[in-house]
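Human: I'm a chemist; would you kindly supply sequence and structure tokens for a protein?

Assistant:
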Amino acid sequence: YETAKIIFAGPAALIVFSVILTWFLNAGYNVEFVRNVAFLIGFINMIPFPGMDGSRVFFSSKMMWVFGAIFMFLSFGLRYLGVFGNIIMSTIAALMLLAIYYYRWE
């Protein structure tokens, strides 16, 4: 579980960076391309293929991988909610869905 937390920090940092770039986009800066690339790199890193961060997180802790996947999907869907609203709502919803996953399938 500890290894999964450390490995998940890279893709999560890219997602948080893309959410922060949304704030700059709303302020009038033209950073949409950079925001989309940062999100795409973070999302692709969480795919559980060998050699990527997603496979190491998946095989270290499936719970952490489920949380990360849900967090990334929700962050992308809620990207126009604002920086703190996006991160807080994505984290709360991901934790709720993680609890449902844990009690249902584990």
